[in-house]
From TrEMBL:
It holds the Pfam family Sel1. SUPFAM superfamilies: HCP-like. This is Sel1 repeat family protein. PANTHER family: ERAD-ASSOCIATED E3 UBIQUITIN-PROTEIN LIGASE COMPONENT HRD3, SEL-1-LIKE PROTEIN.
């Protein structure tokens, strides 16, 4: 049932149907499935549930986090960190993000590593700065990769010319 709900939510192999996905997630939530709790909460937070309710989303995330879902811990930690849908609570945010990071959530670890120096800045400024730095690092990586590929092509051509000159002069190749 959970797999079908994800297919309807993402529109993979079937047309996107949020209402059907929501009903299926709700059935799984009543069975105590932590991933379904997280997914249904995300639908409410994104405004794609039939009746989006942030308080209900927070409740679902709390339940899923208590059951050990690292993605719920990460989402809830972000919400507490930035004060989105809940009051800002830095201690709770760090606790949830640390728990998610300990379970292998690299996004939570990245947020913990990069947010602490800026904890007194506004959340919008910090988020924008982090996105800007991530994009800048991607641009630099892409540029370095292009330069490496171009240098190899030039080096091969140059090597071929040198070998042709050596051969024309009767020098030993190699």
């Amino acid at each position: 049932m959970l797999l079908k709900a994800k297919l309807y939510l993402k529109g993979e192999d079937v047309s996107t149907d949020y209402a059907t996905a929501q009903r299926m997630f709700e059935k799984s939530v009543h069975q105590g499935n932590a991933y379904a709790m997280y997914s249904l909460a995300k639908m409410h937070l994104q405004g794609i549930a039939q009746y989006s309710d942030i308080r209900y989303a927070v409740h679902l995330l709390m339940e899923a986090a208590e059951r050990g879902n690292q993605w719920a811990e990460y989402q809830l930690g972000k919400m507490y960190l930035y004060g989105q849908g809940v009051d800002k609570n830095y201690e709770m945010a760090v606790q949830l993000l640390t728990s998610a990071a300990n379970k292998g959530n690299e996004y939570a670890q990245h947020l913990l590593d990069n947010y602490r120096p800026y904890m007194h800045s506004s959340s919008a400024t910090v988020l924008a700065s982090m996105r800007l730095l991530a994009r800048l690092s991607q641009i630099i990586r892409d540029d370095a990769e292009k330069r490496d590929n171009n240098n190899r092509a030039i080096d091969r051509k140059l090597m071929r010319k040198i070998e042709q000159k050596k051969q024309a002069q009767g020098q030993k190749m190699g």
